[in-house]
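Thread: Newbie trying to understand structure tokens

Hi all, I'm a second-year student working on a class project, and my supervisor (Dr. K.) asked me to get a predicted structure for one chain before our next meeting. I've only ever worked with sequences, so writing a 3D structure as a token string is new to me. If someone could post the tokens and maybe explain what I'm looking at, I'd be very grateful. Here's the chain:
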Amino acid sequence: CDHSNNHKKNVNGPIRIYPNYIQEKNIRNYTSLSIQHGLYIYLGGDYACERELVERYTSDLVSTPHSWQKQADSLNNLAFSTARSQATPFNMRRFSQLVFTYKIIEMDLCLGSTNVATPKDIDEFDLWAWSEYPRLLSRFIYLWSNHRTLIGACNIPGDKCSACFTIDGHQKARRRVCRSKQVNFKSSDFSEPLVIGCWRTPIRNSLYCELHQNDEKLTKAPRTNQKHTHAMKLRNSRQWQRQKNIFFGATNCSTTKARSESYINKCSRSFGLLAMVTNCRVIISFSEIFRSETLREIIQLLINTIRISDNALPKIACYDDGCHLVRFVQRHVGKLITDTPASNTLKNTKFYIDKAHWKNHVGTWCKENMSPYATSDLNMINTQSAEQLFSWLKRYAPIISSLGWLKAPLYLLVLFHYKNLWTCKVRPTRHFDIANMVPDSATISLPHAANTLRTTSAVSSSNSDGYLSQAATTKHDPSSHTVNENKWAQMSK
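---
Reply by user tm_fold:
Sure, no problem. This is what the structure looks like when written as tokens:
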């Protein structure tokens, strides 16, 4: 239906009503009622898909990972074996785009939006979704950090729902990333820049993304002789040993996670992700790692989560390198770490070593203060929830490792959201009215915060502080998405 008035001049153009959305100009609007309407899902184009097939795939995905190609082949085989009519055989790309689009919209509506406005062009949807990722992640953190009050306590013994959380790193799901590792971001939570590395996928036949092609030319240095190479490795090793002991002299546990600069600079894949999981196995926060599992990146994730959860985060936590984390926080709040309510909450959080990794800790201070067996706080508490999550997540490593920089974070967010829904026995069609309750955090996603700063610096042609100098001064490729990133930045607010 065009709803155009033939008697008056139509300034805004026709409003077109489709089974699952309303289109006005180049914007498609979805609501909870429209997206769930009918037995078929139609998101544009020439074909629709049975709703049952999409929901079946999502339900299977939470328990068993399936690639898009295998699922498309399976559905085509099912249609052939049961003699069901098909307008056209399932295409892997068409099916994956439909499921990905539908589930992001459904998740957005579940997380508090009453209307989701997306671009009409399907090619622009991935970029729009990536620009909306910080907002979706903030609502995800708020909902699942407060799931005890918003949904109800989990059915675990001793009424221990959300009594503790475990934070840990997972390095099985490693996607391809640009080799430019010296991308800095000046976070307000630290007095010094945070080195996060480039998050974009390299272009074809290159180790660098379109923004850092000049770096590839600079790294092609002439080969040195073997003696000189050995001397350089020895010198770098000594420098690394000195640098490694800057903040870790208080405990002699050899459990640090940071990698050497020489290894990081040669690595063409990400370092997995950090995840925060409650003792009732609810995922409350996560972030990708593009360099290594450093204490500052862990602290940034913790501070962001504390700030967004509105102080709903448990006051007891477990981390396999908790001794170094605790001493680092205690020494540097008010110095390297900015003194804020969130950082002070982190400072007052009681950390322990989780039971699975306790045997690796031999330091005297660690044994006196971090033992999970010397306190009643962890009685009947599951301290291995993060390891249990990663045991489930590692089966998805081939899928996650093959995704690009636009889809990878959204795929993880959707996967974790539906995993939590299943854990808490909540249907995905439920609507949580939390849109106006979620606090704002500019650094909830470091790649997005750094990308915003880079875009601003590139437009203004001023980079006086020197941060993100590589990205800001690199000649912009016409095929880059920077211009279009701002185009969809204000949609669906």
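A couple of things are worth pointing out once you decode it. Residues 242-250, 458-493 have pLDDT under 50 and may be disordered. The first strand starts at residue 15 and ends at 17. Feel free to ask follow-ups in this thread.
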